[in-house]
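Our platform keeps sequence and structure together, in a single record for each protein. Because each token names a local backbone shape, the row as a whole describes the fold. One such record is reproduced below, unchanged from the form in which we store it:
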Amino acid sequence: MNSEMAADSSVSTSDDRPLEPDPVIEVYKRDIDRTLLRENLKLTPEERLRKLQELQRFATELRRAGRAATR
């Protein structure tokens, strides 16, 4: 386990007992690219909303192009 995962697993309960990591969650965490999450969190809420709108426009264009290609 790398130090980043260890840091994420060091959660305590309200009475300061360490919370045991869930093995299923630990397996899934290996496949998450946290760098993308961090980069997105550096953006302001307005910038994140703009990126989402751009992604939605792109998805709409892909659907339109897909329908046109099947005709």
